[in-house]
Design brief:
The complex is a heterodimer of chains A (292) and B (287). With 292 residues, chain A is mainly α. Chain A folds into two domains: 2-48; 84-290, MetI-like (MetI-like fold), CATH 1.10.3720. Chain A contains eleven helices and no strands. The longest helix of chain A is centred in the N-terminal third of the chain and has 37 residues, at 9-45. In chain B, helix 5 packs parallel to helix 8 (155-179). Chain B starts with 8 loop residues before the first helix and ends with a helix. Chain B folds into two domains: 1-51, no CATH class; 82-285, MetI-like (MetI-like fold, Orthogonal Bundle). Classes of the chains: A mainly alpha (292), B mainly alpha (287). At the A-B interface, helix 1, helix 2, helix 4, helix 6 and helix 7 of A face helix 3, helix 4, helix 5, helix 6 and helix 7 of B.
């Protein structure tokens, strides 16, 4: 057969494959070594010990089973009533939480509106202004809410006020960045139109930019509200109002059934607000699509 | 231009009479818009009052105090604590890394169980999805507080909190990634006579692993952020040092810690963005 004369294609393929594998192997070994080193290092600094965990595991199961209330089949209503014994007070605290999130989001949106126009590359000519505003937005965004809350609790005292301020500062940073990104993606046509008609900077923003970006702003603000309800629920851990303070108290005092009751109420509230906001967002998007 | 296209004053008047809706916003719409604004305004004023914004004396004292402590923040100083701060940052990163890794390991099987195209029984994948939602619905900080009670103070409690709350998030993301795969490869592997395990290994995993890796990296970024504050409830990391400094009025040290957190978070974000880009590129280059 004439095939014998030609080099064996299978052997050639195997050779090429081996060469490729060898080239990749050194990289893979390096990756595995780095990964193992990081793994061991983080296990050491994280004080991870299988012993502690195995010792703690029954404790965890006990903990979870302790939070399940003792409700008998013959008196379900009475059992639930006892489980949620402080329902009106917790409802009030949840209302506080939502108010904190609402006001924090609203004030944060206003702050973001102030940040976002000087922080968009296509709307400012002054490079310094752009740079400074962008860095400010970054700092506002990068520091966690809880850290702001700690600082504001120190300055303003306990209560919902520092919570609102903390959420406001963090949201204005987070939303400011998103708003600027929306601004940078707009159609330049209307801007040039308003400028050609003799509009000043504020008129350009009001008449050319805002109509294009407002639906996106609203949708982002609503999304932020959902996130902020979650943060407002835990911001009370440092004394900044809302349901968090009560939750911290019952966890620290081992009032087991209260823990599960409050956590369930938080989950219910959060998912209710998520659903409502999702509906509103879809409505905005539909309205935007409807207008030509 | 002829008179038929240009609108003269006469024709304008006529048009206004015939189609009033075009020229004026309808009453119903106007009432709705004003109503929304009025409701928003009322809610805002009530919230401001409810949270104590009208207590001007308190606001003034607070702002004064805020200015005072900002003054103390600069220049930031370590006062000899710098190695401890570095250790705290390292601990934070270690917690985030270990937590994300194990959350992903645990989430992997649950992701398969929650995917509609793997587990066909509606009841099973639905109940798995809802339990992920419950895990996700409880904030990491709440889990941390609970685990501090179970395993004691320290970073281990934080790691467990990250694992539990992230397991829900990652399992949901993994399940969605698995639901979005291309069916053809699965069918091809199955047609060549593979068992169920082999279908998962050769039909599903090669498609979803790059997506999962990039989601893990994203989650690692987010966990680095949350691990910085877990220390506030005693679950390890730099947060403990930060809250201590704030409680005892050491503002220059607190400021340095905040700056260190900012630097760490942005470095991690940058690194993870680079790696994610490489993963996506490697996926695209595959023939």
């Amino acid at each position: 057969m004439s095939y014998a004369a030609a080099p064996d294609p299978v052997a050639a393929f195997e050779r090429a494959r081996d060469a490729m594998r060898r080239a990749r192997r050194s990289k893979e070994i390096l990756f595995v070594v780095i990964f193992c080193a990081v793994f061991v290092l983080s296990a050491i600094v994280g004080e991870v010990s299988v012993g502690t965990f195995v010792e703690g595991l029954p404790g965890l199961f006990n903990y979870v089973s302790d939070t399940i209330p003792d409700i008998h089949g013959d008196d379900v209503v009475g059992g639930v009533r006892e489980w949620f014994w402080a329902f009106p007070r917790w409802l009030g605290l949840l209302f506080d939480t939502i108010v904190i999130a609402f006001l924090g989001t609203l004030l944060g949106t206003i702050g973001a509106l102030a940040f976002c126009f000087p922080g968009s590359r296509n709307l400012v000519t002054n490079r310094w202004l752009y740079f400074v505003v962008r860095r400010l937005t970054e700092i506002a965004r990068a520091v966690p809410e809880l850290v702001y809350a700690l600082i504001f609790v120190f300055a303003f005292g306990l209560g919902p006020l520092p919570g609102v301020l903390a959420i406001m500062v963090h949201s204005s940073g987070a939303l400011g960045k998103l708003f600027s990104e929306v601004n940078e993606n707009i159609d330049i046509g209307p801007i040039e139109g308003v400028r050609a008609a003799g509009g000043n900077w504020f008129q350009i923003i009001r008449l050319a930019v805002i109509p294009q970006v407002l639906p996106n702003y609203l949708s982002y603000a609503l999304l932020r509200f959902e996130i902020n309800v979650r943060s407002a629920a835990v911001i009370g851990f440092v004394g900044a109002g809302g349901i968090g303070q009560e939750l911290m108290f019952v966890i620290r005092q081992f009032v087991y059934t209260d823990i599960s009751a409050i956590v369930l109420m938080i989950i219910a509230t959060v998912s209710l607000i998520d659903m409502t906001c999702e509906k509103l967002r879809h409505q905005f998007i539909d309205e935007q699509r409807a207008t030509p | 231009m002829s008179d038929t296209t240009a609108i003269g004053a006469m024709r304008l008047e006529e048009a206004r009479r015939r189609w009033p809706d075009v020229f004026a916003v309808s009453l119903g719409h106007r009432v709705r818009v004003y109503g929304v604004w009025l409701a928003l305004g009322a809610a805002t004023v009530f919230s401001l009052w409810h949270t104590g914004f009208f207590d001007f004396a308190r606001i003034a004292t607070g702002v004064g105090k805020l200015g005072w402590l900002l003054g103390f923040m600069f220049p930031p100083a370590a006062n000899g604590w710098f190695p401890d701060f570095c250790e705290g940052i390292l601990e934070t990163l270690g917690m985030a890394f270990f937590g994300t890794l194990f959350a992903a390991l645990f989430a992997l099987p649950f992701g398969f169980l929650g995917a509609r195209n793997v587990v066909t029984s509606f009841l099973i994948h639905f109940s798995f999805r809802r339990s992920f939602d419950c895990l996700r619905g409880i904030d990491t900080l709440i889990w941390a507080l609970i685990f501090v009670n179970v395993v004691g103070l320290g970073p281990f409690a934080g790691i467990l909190a990250i694992i539990v709350s992230d397991m829900g998030t990652l399992a949901k993301l993994f399940a969605e990634a698995i639901e979005n795969i291309d069916r053809k490869q699965v069918d091809g592997v199955r047609a060549s006579g593979a068992s169920e395990i082999e279908v998962v290994r050769f039909g599903i995993l090669p498609q979803v692993i790059p997506v999962m890796l990039s989601q893990m990296l994203y989650q690692f970024e987010s966990n680095t952020r949350s691990a910085t504050i877990l220390g506030i409830v005693g679950a390890g990391g730099i947060g403990l040092q930060l809250s201590d400094r704030i409680r005892v009025n050491n503002w220059d040290e607190a400021c340095l810690i905040i700056i260190m957190i900012l630097v760490t978070v942005s470095v991690i974000d940058h690194l993870s963005k680079l790696i994610r880009l490489r993963i996506i590129q490697a996926q695209e280059y595959r023939p």
